[in-house]
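Fold these two proteins, one after the other.
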Amino acid sequence: MKRALALFLALLMTLLTGACAEADDGGEGIVHVLDEEQTDSFVQETGMIASDPFRPDSLERIILPPDDRKVIKKPKQYPYSAIAYMEAKGECGCEWCCTGFMVTEKTLLTAAHCMMCKEHEKWAKKVTFYFGYKSRKNYLYRYKSKWTAWVGSFPSRNEDDWAIVKLNKKVGKKTGWFGIRACSDDDLMGKSFCIAGFGGEDKLRYAWGTVTGVWEKQLGYNIDTLPGSSGSPIFDSNDYAIGINTSHTDSANFGQRLRSEIFQKMEQNGLL
């Protein structure tokens, strides 16, 4: 069943990255790919809270209304401030854009394919992370220093399309961060969550919707997304992320389910 699901998603998956023009020359980094044995070696533990949300005192918190996907007019306010507009440049020289989100003072989560040029399958060499982004001249914080990334076995296995990015500065102290949870099937299926990410004129947008499918490593949902919103947080009204938006078919959108193996990899590398 899992292999059939992975094959189905592999055939229908469209990477939600968008092209960037005149991208900033970001900070250099290294991507570590985890093989299948490493990725599957951890036992899933549901219901665990790995970290709590953090909002800096200087940032006002915005309550998210349950509405269709709309442009966020105040991206410098929490929790939107913890969402990054990513401009990446690959080893091949290609440029693309994606979304990521802070989960500790130095740790960002995104999709693995956000760290790769989809045309040449070359990893990102430089990435600039903008927080509270409205334009390249209007943002809360820009990070363009060194970084290190750990990714699942993507692209060989679409069900491991996740990336952990360690930044060299305490960016989360300025932007805030999302809490992260590994939830049980019952806590996910049929429940309402929000996705906020970039796409469409580089604007940060959000939408609420319902989880319609739950698997060991993935989630299906009817929440609206746009190209460029890969790597966006899937989160609840208390600012806990439970997944990472990654892909879509004609009938549903899909994401990575946050689970103990991802948290354990973060702990092993001092990221929690």
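Now the second one:
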Amino acid sequence: MKKSRNYIPILIVLLFLSIISALFLGSQNISLVELFDNQFYQVKDIVLSIRLPRVINAITVGALLSIAGLMIQNLVKNPLADPYILGLSGASASVQLLIIASGIIIPFGLFVFIGFCAALFSMLLLIKISSTKRLNTQSLLLSGVVIAFAYGAIISLVLTLSPLSTTKPMLFWLMGDLSYSKTSFYPILLLIVGMVWAYKFHKELDLIARGEFFAQKSGVNTKKINMLLLLTTSVFTAVAVSMAGTIGFVGLVVPHIARIIVGNSHAKLIPVSALIGAIVLLVADTVARTIVAPIQLPVGIFTALFGVPLFIALQRKIK
């Protein structure tokens, strides 16, 4: 027990170091002297106006995807499930790609809000299709996979018909891109409220992870908890995709890392998953910005490159 309590302070320190690295590394490396010297006013502008919003969004998106992955794996009882398995990301991506393809310039906040609304509409459609009297997780999963294929076809059609001038930004968005980050505290507030809300039911989540029948025998309202899991996954995924596109492997791999570190207790899994997800995405984004600077690559490339071998290693360890 004592060992597990030490992980959160360690992760907080790692997150702090990741933030410092992200703020000072990039196409132009910055020193502390330059940051606090009034002569280097352009340096302050780079750190505060460009890099800091990107760091905040990377932390927020990483935590959102990790918690969403933890929730969806509990809901469908499948260790291979990730936040995108229900097709919600496809709804958000389809609408946002149509905006990019049209060449319409709108505020980033409105862009995020439109994608968020599209994903929530898809969630309501999914619930309508997959449930009759109660929320059936198997039907939910199958319906989500089918809907995801439909959105994939729409995305392919948009990419095919779009002018070449917009194809690159669209591909970047599909692979995950934080280069358009603007500071917004609404996603951060949503993350905090959602984590507190999920944490409130951590005992019920522990029981339902062992199976719905066992949870029902233990007095858990499984319908209520399943809806909690679905809503948390849907809202968190919708916000994350709306902010940064479809970033793969974070929501799949991070919950497994958290379980290896702290076990299956959701009281520890929820904060630890959020911290690990924030660190992973922030480090990946820093690498994406610096490895071939000044060219910036989509962060999704590096989460996949890190995630595939890591998941294989975790799979062997779990066996």
